[in-house]
Queue: 2 jobs
Job 1
Amino acid sequence: MESSKQVNFQLFSAKDFKADKYVKNLSQNYIGGFELQNFRKKILAISEETNNNLKKNVYQNYVQFIDTAKEISHLESEMYQLSHLLSEQKALLSTLSSTSILEHSTYHSIENENKNPDVNQKEENKQKLATILEKVEGCKEILEVPGRHLIFEGDLLEIDPVENTALKTVHIYLFNDGVMVTNRNSNSRGLMKYIFETMYDLTSLAVVNVRDLGNVKQAFKLLIFPDTRVFQCSSNSNKKEWLDKFDQTKKSRLTQEQQKRESVAEKSPSRTVSVESPNSSHDIEEVGLAHPEWFTESPEELDVWVAQRYFEEAVTLLQKVKDYINQSHSVLGQPDHILTDIQRKVEQRQNHLTEVLMKELEVNPDKSLQGGLRAARRAVRLLNQLGRSAQACDLFLKLCSSMLKTQCRRVKREGSITVYIRHISSVVFTNLSHMSEEFLRAFSDLPSCSSAYVIWASTELSLFISHFIKQVFMPQTPLSVITKCVVLVRTQCERLYTYGVDLCYQLDGGLRSPLTKALRDTRDKLIDSIKLRALEDKWIPMNLHSKQQISRCLQEYSALGLPLDSYVTGDTWIQISASTLAFTKTFFTLLHDCFKLQTSDLIHTIDDTLYTVFEAQIKYIENALRNEPNEEQKCFLLKNAEFLLVKVLERVQEVYKEYIGYESKSLKKLQVEYSALTKGIVPSSRSTKTKYSSEFL
Amino acid sequence: MSKKPTAQPVIHKVIMVGSGGVGKSALTLQFMYDEFVEDYEPTKADSYRKKILLDGEDVQIDILDTAGQEDYAAIRDNYFRSGEGFLCIFSITEDESFQATQEFREQILRVKNDENIPFLLVGNKCDLEDKRKVTFQEASERAKQWGVPYVETSAKTREHVDKVFYDLMREIRARKMDENKTSNGRGKDKSKKKRRLCKIL
């Protein structure tokens, strides 16, 4: 039977199997009614057996099917748990990464410490949530919020808020962020005990303790507009527990939210708006008016600009933000917290920017001054735009000082003092002019800075003057050199006129006392040389030995304005002593130097010098006259005296008038005092002029 | 839904608002149980219900005694939404609490979107006349400006306690009767008008 059955199976399942043909074949083998009947019985028995077999098979499969189905449902819940676990891990990782990048290391470590004990708690939470998932139908999405955990749960009786009658039993889950209400699931005898009804957000859920509701005791209310739901607890302590849990959860959520808001606000205020506004409605009300993105991101943007040294852009943005804030102030009346927050931040950035710019201008020994003032232009301009012109001006001038100093140091003292002075004064005043130009360019519309500039320039000038005095006014320096130097500096100083800065007065003032001293020294020196010459003088007419010599000498003196033709005798003689002529020459040099140096302050000194020197010479002739026994010699001496007192003095007065504008009184006095000499009277006694003779002889 | 054959009397929902410590709970307890509670314990949010006789009519008063301090604006809004009339309470001995009433008034108007919501300005602690900081005139002027009555009460001596609750309930009742009378269409119109007004504001 078994083998035939096997064959049959194959036969039946063949593609070209035909039932009619098969039956015909079978019935052909059995002949007669009895045999056929037997065969029929046999077939029936087989069919019965097959039927049973099939039934058994199906039953077996069915058990397996149910087992598999159960397995699958288990697997499903496990998968949910897994996905939940993964999402939590992901959230954990993302917070870790964000903290490690953005936060300080100290904050980070604190965070980590806080997190470690949390891990166990989290595991626990997950398990709790998983069990809820198994118990409550239709709450899958609800449990997929990361960070949500169960605080409290329990069965409560819902009461009709108006009629005070019992409605139904509910099971309520209190999570850290909301309340889930579930109803009893009457259809299922399995694991799903409850059906999800609703979820309330904790931040909008008003919990009211029902103190007195007639016959209803131990109840509390949940107010969620437009619903009012009353729940009755099993006991007073149970109700107290519920209310306490609600209160605690709300409080912890509030502190958590505040922390989050603070930390987020610190990281980026822009995110505060975008993240928080959708989930808490009262935030939106506080924000009032949404700020454009560029505004909320401006502090970061400023950081970037400054870091990349795009200062112009930073300043422009700063201005834009300020304008926006002002505008918003006038529109809103009172500022909202984002506005003030950003305002505060932007102010910080502005201070930072100012610092950076100021550093840019700061004088630093390591920094090259290659770019010169041109390099400072940018920073100065930006600082001016930021309203920090006072600082900018201060730093700019400091920079100028240091530049001036280095420039001066580069000028080496080589060759004569005049060359050096020419060089250094040119450097100083050229720089000063450039700096004035730059300054006027940078601070043209800031009159308050101009005074700072004037003070600075005068300080620099006095520094230069002291340096100049040290270099030029040395005892061995001849007056003519000093004069040259002073004239050089003066002309340089006049260059500053173009910028409206007249420092000549200060220069003159600074040079007055050294010049006076120099004049006195020169005077004394000249008197000394007069004395020396007096000792050697033989009082004879000068013999120039050749015609060429004499014509040259005549030319020389006529250039001074003193024609000597009348004094020439013979071919090579001049009827004036050599010492007189030498004195005349020196005196004219002195005279010209004095006039070059002259300022109204120095006139008196100059007069005095000229007078004293001239008088010393006259005195000396007078003295010689007095001691001269020879009449012929006396005549010659008188001629010399007359030459000096008339010809020379007249010429001196001419020159004096030319320079000063009037004739010198002291020299006139000299002429008057010694008029006797010009008249050919030889002084016999010393009575009248004692003091001079005692002074100089 | 109700299985009882006799329907519950109509409920008037009253909300107590005001800064912390002005005596909201004290007024409520005095009204409910004729007792004065001396020691102060901050309220979170308590609700009371009582059957009373208002001008010969059985009614229920539902009092929601709110917390002076509530951190979530959304929750505060939910309290206010559930109310039909408001007792805005301040202490006459504390100017700050009087100033705070302005804010409460604004919040209520915003939430209820109705300028004529039954509302009473209540100056509590009028037994402490010697410590008075807010003058009667000052408070009356504010009430006048809002178009609401001003009453001074003392939860301690029970002065005017019943009056404020009953006056408010009368206003609520009048409001409800008005609303029943006016057709739905007109009611809608009214609310629309108010909404528009609000927007302009």
Job 2
Amino acid sequence: MRVPLSWLREYIDFDLSADELAGLFSLRSQEVDGIQRLGVLDGEVVVGEVVEFGPHPNADRLSVAKVDLGGREVQIVAGAPNPYPGARVPVVLPGSTMADGKKLKKAKLRGLESYGMMMSERELGISGEHGGILLLDGGYEVGRPLADYFPVGETVLELDVNPNRPDLWGVIGVARELAAILKTEFRTPEPRLVTGGSPTEDYTLRVEAPDLCPRYDLRRVSGVTPGGRVPLWMRRRIHAAGMRPVNAVVDATNYVMLETGQPIHAFDAAKVRGGIVVRRGRGGEKMTMLDGHTRTLDKEMLVIADEERGLVVAGVMGAEDAEVSDETTDVLIEVATFAGRNIMETSQRLGLRTDASGRFERGLDPNMVSYAMDRVAALICGTSGGRVAPDTLSHYPEPVGSWEVPMRLERAELLLGMTVEKDEAAERLGLLGCQVRGEDGRLVANVPTFRRDLEREADLIEEVGRLVGLENVPEVLPGVPLPGGLTPSQKKLRTLRRLLADLGLHEAVTYPFGPDRWKRSLGPGNGDAAPLELRNPLSAEASNLRPSLLPGLLDAAARNRHFGARGGALFEVGHVFETREQPEGMREYALRYRLTGETGLDAEVPAALLMGVEEKTRVAGLLAGTVRPAAWNASAGTAGFFEAKGVVERLVPDARFGPGDEPFLHPGRSAAVLVGDAEVGWVGELHPETAEKFDLAGWPVAAFELDLGAVEPDPEPRFRPFVNVPAVAMDLAVVVNRDVTVGAMLDEIGALGSPMLAETRVFDVYEGEQVPEGKKSVALGFTFQAEETLTDRAVKQELDSVSDRLRAAFGAEVRGG
Amino acid sequence: MCYHSRSMTAAGRIEELRAEALSAVASADTTGELESARVKYLGRSAELTEIKKSIRDLAPEDRKTVGAASNRATKEIEDALAGRLDRLSAAEREERLRSEALDVTLPGTPYPRGSLHPSLRIIDEVVDFFVGLGYRVAEGPEVETDYYNFTALNIPPGHPARTMQDTFFLDEGLVLRTHTSPVQIRTMLSQEPPVYVVCPGRTYRRDSDPTHTPMFNQIEGLAVDEGLSLSHLKGTLAAMARQVFGEGVKVRLRPSYFQFTEPSVELDVSCFNCGGADPNCKVCRGAGWLEMLGAGMVDPAVLEEVGYDSERYTGFAFGMGPDRMAMARYGIPDLRLFFEGDLRFLRQF
């Protein structure tokens, strides 16, 4: 809501600068988004009369005027050609400060002195009009300050009105609020009607959808001078409040809306056939609206029609058909209240939000209708010479009355944590429009109907608290009667993230929705579940919810590559989503659960099933390109299977690695990560096709993804006794068939169950000239350790049993004796 | 005579050898030369050793003189050797160390350095603060039901507040949560008061412009107990602000509106950078205050919805944006940087 301060001052006196007012309003009521200034901030604007007007001798596009400022004549260079000798014009004098903060100086323009400036409507803050100099009528006296007629500068407060306060969508409501803040009075204008117009009852009013229209009032103003314009003072207010002037009648309706918050519609009575019908839209009904667009209405939209056609989508926008035009002489004024939710939904479905719909959807006070009607009728009479009908057609079957809300002072003190004086509370509530009485040590407020947000005790307590001032609330730290703390899994997550960062990975947070490419390129590997999709994505490129963290990280890696990175390592901990298939016939229960929280008749059904979504937390890492740059004493590290596997082994100490089957991974360079028999994730190099689709072709890329539950970055330590007897280290190199896996060899060695064998290390794997075709050499290092000093013989025996075992299992030949 | 002369000759020879040896020791420049001198003058086949061996063949009267002289000479040479060795080996060690010197300005062996996301750094810090006060951390799903995300929070279908939160919709009745408030509902439904929890997590709104991203992080908190008031809310959040932005900051409350709190407030923190003194401050842009979070006393309708006695219990709730807090704290100009996985950005944290 834009509040021009000169307008506000019509209803309330206050001695505050704009900045002070904005600060105070922010601390007591609504946030002030900004302060806008229009016209002349400081200085003098006088009415001048053009004496001479002619072309500038040195410039084609400029003119020179001699202007009488009332007793003295000055020369002014102008850009606009519209003044003429005898025209009265506003002249701003040198030394004045304009809205943009610039100070006007005496100037020479193309060699000619120019004393001040003749002003357009825009320069005066009256409208956006900048086509020429504003020409004043003969009523403006030459030499008088223009400010005697209307303010030449304006300061506009931009209020961010909370949705529960539709009363603040009008300047009068803002004045009432300010009065409550300042503990002062405010006043409202008294409408003076010129009666004697043609009767409204020449028309009919029929409300066919009373559920959507609690009140509808219709009154006629006839004998209106066609094509009139409202006076400057009104136009400049409408402009300052952010609307555009249209014509005298429409401007009057807008003016009263800005003043009271009540939107008003005016029909050209001559174009209304028979009367007004308030009904629902007819299926397929079309309406060409004032913005020139034709829209199709549905049966839930409320339409204001005559007996033949729809004229207005109620509360949103009118059609071209019965609008007031420059020919209109007879006007039907609609002041009504509509069901807020219906207006909101209509506005959403039509994709059309207007000043009116924004107000109606908050739910307006039906008792505001009469005042707004009188006020707008009076203004039309005053500005366009009309006469008001003696009668008003009114549909208001269930008048809304005020209601009572009690407030206990001790409850107020408990909620606010500060002392609340009874008289103070009563006075503040009174200033807001409540009638307050004391009763049994509490206050009872009779709440006016324009404050529908004040329903309960807590609502009143909030009003008292903020008006007294929240700076009076002390700071108290409560003693929490519970031991706080992170759960083990929350602690584990912390350790995990810290560990990954310490291993050189960078933590990313990526969007969980992405393009179809995500689902196409990753294949059907994530079970058979259908991917989850957003119904209203920001773009088609962001509609698929991720079943895996991988695609977001791949996109990030591609971006990094595009930005010139040579590689890098990313990780992310986040949720992944999949559809969870619901059994037949569960839909009804699912919807009830989702909309009402009830699990239905059968409480056995787990909530997760009713959600229809499987959501898990996973951790993923992505290594791409060069993950460790070369240094003068260290070679570069490149992304690859074993780089990624090393990280996984660090995160899941007991991991085993089985054959992988993720379609987006290299089939020969990927593995399933197993803990016990359970598959808890995967690790591998990216399939070249996947890399290509994600714009990473040619880059080595390896990744892993793990269930968070399987990760154990810092397992609970367990002490194992050790002896001081020196250990013996022995190496063994064997040649086996190429397809024998080292994992199987290690399993065999483990199966020996040697009590002496403390550690086995793989320190070399070799294929090439030194071993026969189709074979490889695997070099193993063993550490033997026992309670007593080991003899050479005992160690030799143990080593022999290892090589025997490998020979038996894999035909392994011991290399080099 | 003969013996006498022999003994005289031996003594003279000892003296000669002594002088020769001392001179050789003194002129040895390396420990190797010194060792050669030792072998030459004191070794097994050195002349002095031979003389000593032959003492028993001398006349008894000569034995004493020659013995004493040779012992003295030996001792003297040994002392000289030891002294010289000390000096030479010290010099040699020094020389060796000199030759081993490195260019210590070369960089050390690189150990990897990754990073933690700036928003999550803030979340960890705020969570730690509340955990220290006795709070627990509650979590919940990001795909939420319409009921938990809106209705249970006193935002029934058709309420205007729903349109304020541009919502991503999934299958009927499911949304991407627009705030972490549903976690509070889930928490209250699962336990009786007292409740003290913080709920960090990702939230989603259908909004994308230079200052809004369709995903953002939130930390919400909830306390429900007997006797809780707005002053407790203010005290708790003031302490939190001082933890995150420094001991000196002040807080203020402004009235606000949230459907699930009454009274509702916004909390501003005095600018930790300029304290309001700099009209051109880059952090607060001269306002002196930073909008930090929305909060309020839990609406009685919300308490009743989860089955709490709203007469007996009161509570406060708050929600803040760790992304924006990170922007203020680390001087990050653009929210969109947070969610791109851009290494140029991530590396800095």
